[in-house]
Amino acid sequence: MSLQVVTANRLDDGLVVFLTADGGWSENIHDSRVADGKEAAAVLLKEASAPELDVVIVGPYLIDVEQGDGGLVPTKYREVLRTKGPSVRQDLGYQAV
Amino acid sequence: MYRYDDFDRQLVQERTEQFREQVKRRLAGDITEEQFRPLRLMNGVYLQLHAYMLRVAVPYGTLRADQLRELGGIARKYDKGYGHFTTRQNIQYNWPKLDEIPDALLDLANVEMHAIQTSGNCIRNTTTDQYAGAAADEIEDPRPYCELIRQWSTFHPEFTYLPRKFKIAVTGSPNDRAAVKVHDIGLRMHQNDAGETGFEVIVGGGLGRTPFVGKTVRDFIGKNDLFSYLEAILRVYNRFGRRDNKYKARIKILVHEEGVEEIQRLVEEEWAQIKDGSLRIGDDEIAQYIEQFAPPAFETLSDDDADFERHKAENRGFSNWVRSNVIEHKQPGYAIASVSLKPIGGIPGDATDVQMELVADLSEKYSFSDVRVTHEQNLVLPHVKKADLFALWTELDKANLGTANLGYVTDIIACPGLDYCALATARSIPLSQRISERFGDLDRQHDIGELKIKISGCINACGHHHVGHIGILGLDKRGKEFYQITLGGDASENASIGKIVGAGFSEAEVVDAIESLVTKYIDIRDAGERFIDTYRRVGTDPFKEVLYGDR
């Protein structure tokens, strides 16, 4: 079983966002709609790649996640950093909020 | 220093307004990201891991006080209170909002700065010796030629869509502090037998995934002919450089594949056709640019200053700083002072808004409003009276800018790495911080002597790891960061590409590995040898042994 969510950067401020259940975009990965399996992931990415969203977000793509104790956690460290902010500046990014 | 003329002003202002319109159209949905991306890149706007990034050009690393002050102001107004000085002598902001970037560019334009050609497959910011115009070993100030290169290359219609990006570096000194041999074109100023000043032209150097030391394509080109010769090289590259594979598109690959003799033949053939054209620059015109970089109004001083010597004798912190961060100036009674942006355990190259404003103030007070950015990610006040050095250091030190470590093991180049960069495969900054902390003791740094550690967070080598005495390349191995070590790299006039010493190390192991290498060097060095000298004498094996034993 492989769980995936869609992430992108928001057009106006460039910040990291995740596709949510209601088709919106959230700064919090825990709000993500999760696709279980290849087919569901393809559907999710297709929705995120709709031409009308080009004015909302930039560069949507799928990332692998796991269900951790505190919620969804990306499997790759690069994506973990995107959910938090720079590891060397804990005062910046989402981790600082 | 060079001041914009009406053409420069108009050009930068029009470009700023053009980009404002492009951003407006993008945000309104009138153009797609695919259409917008090349436009934003041409204006220095990247989309990185967490947000947009704005890269601002610092032409040949020279800043006036008002410009540095504005860079600090932009950090506060449009970013999160800091900026990152890069190995291209530029500055990057990590958090600007797209709709605010046009305002930031306007603020830059008001102090004669811009972000044009800081990205894209064009001729990028020309870099040079950070001590230009001040160094005692200099033949001539290289900046008039850098400025002419800037003017020739800005919006050059033929070279806006090259096969790949193109970087030129110039040194006016035989001691190369600008790493010219690892640039697409490196220009080394020297004099011919007739006593005329000109340049050795080195082509096809570079780092990245395929590193090369450049090869000399011409031993000497006179100043008047420099620009037609550069044009000829660029024409050959533009015509024959590979466009089929991004990773083989730099001129270094063309030089490697065709051979330097063939490139030389093609360049000379092209040059023969254009050398007497409009790009031949007359002595009068060159003189005008030399005049723009005329030395400031130095006082006639003795080179010996009793107060300076007394402060050194009385204050260990100050004398340590002078030992590493202050070098000889061509003008008696003056010195060149480097401001380290590498506090122990800090982030290499980062400066806060307040620090930038302070250095701007101090440059006005002590250095004729002149500041330099170095490719090793530090700042320089190039013209400080020896009598003022103690007061300068005291003020720097209060702002955590007085670290005495220039050229030592803690003066590490590190790219932003995976903490910020969308291309990175591993983090660079935390590793540089840990190495800095491990070797932070100053007596130990003095004992180790000059040692250049350079860290890149991916194969693109923005952290220049190939030319580090010890180079570290961060990679991703099955989801974990691991670090490959190279030894024997050198960015100086004796340029060499480091050799991979063996298998990589985990994040947990790599600092110990570096310490083992340093300990080995101390054990086996001859008197007066730097790490690189010892490495060149003994080769890789003794170092390999301490890292891997019988493995």
The greatest inter-chain interface is formed by: A-B, 24 and 30 residues
Largest sheet of chain A: 6 strands, antiparallel
Spell out the helices and strands of chain A N to C: EEEEHEEH
> Which CATH-level-2 architecture of the largest domain in chain B?
2-Layer Sandwich
- Report the total helices of chain A: 2
Total strands of chain A? 6
**Could you tell me the strand content of chain B as a percent range?**
15-25%
Contiguous helical run count of chain B: 18
The CATH superfamily of the largest domain in chain B turns out to be Sulfite Reductase Hemoprotein, domain 1
Structure in a nutshell:
The complex is a heterodimer of chains A (97) and B (551). Helix content of chain A is 20%, strand content 33%.
Written overview of the protein:
The complex is a heterodimer of chains A (97) and B (551). Chain A contains two helices and six strands. In chain A, strands 1, 2, 3, 4, 5 and 6 form a six-stranded antiparallel β-sheet that branches. Chain A has one domain (3-96). The termini of chain A are far apart. By secondary structure, chain A is an alpha+beta fold. By secondary structure, chain B is an alpha+beta fold. Chain B is built from 18 helices and 21 strands. In chain B, strands 16, 17, 18, 19, 20 and 21 form a six-stranded mixed β-sheet that branches. A five-stranded antiparallel β-sheet of chain B has the order 1-2-5-4-13. In chain B, strands 3-14-15-12-11 form a five-stranded antiparallel β-sheet. In chain B, a hairpin with a 5-residue loop joins β14 (370-373) and β15. The longest helix of chain B is centred in the first third of the chain and has 22 residues, at 6-27. The mean pLDDT of chain B is 97. The A-B interface holds A 9, 11-16, 54-55, 58-59, 75-78, 81-82, 85-89, 92-93 and B 26-29, 32-33, 47-52, 80, 95-99, 347, 418-420, 424, 427, 429-430, 433, 479-481. Chain B: Residues 52-109, 338-398 form the Nitrite/Sulfite reductase ferredoxin-like domain.
